[in-house]
Amino acid sequence: MSLQFRAFNNKYIVPVAMILMIGGFVALCQPWSELLHSYSVTITLIGLVIFTIFARFGPSPDKD
User: Fold this and answer.
1) Which pTM value belongs to this model?
2) Average pLDDT of each block of 10 consecutive residues along the chain (64 residues)?
């Protein structure tokens, strides 16, 4: 069964972008790893850009 782009987008790409944004925020706030802290803003921005682009493709309209 093949997924159409909107279904694939809503099932995989948008949640990955959200996880990236949350992960970047967690990396920013954690005190243990300087490497994670130094890349935290980059991780958050990548997630934000991906979310901004792909969240515009909402769910497909229902066919009656």
Assistant:
1) 0.83
2) 80 95 96 94 97 85 60
